[in-house]
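Question:
Write out your own:
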Amino acid sequence: MRMKLGYSTRQAATKLGISLSTLNKFIGLGQIPEPPVTEVAGMRVRLWTDADIERVRQILPKIANGRKTRHKKKGKPQTKKK
């Protein structure tokens, strides 16, 4: 039986319910910590553990999503009735 070393970044994004490009964007902006680089079969990869994914899951609600905050529908202004 093969032991699972960890999840790829793509698999981590799926487990978090966000796209790979969104996860990479947050990593690039420094908003999400990324796991250290590990060498597997001669390749350098980032392997995400369940703890890494859970840590990011706690951070995600604190990251403001520009699209949702920028384009909120504004309600009609209330007028005073006399």
Notes: The chain is about 40% helix and 10% strand. Residues 50-59 form the longest helix (10 residues). Residues 13 and 21 are 9 Å apart (CA to CA).
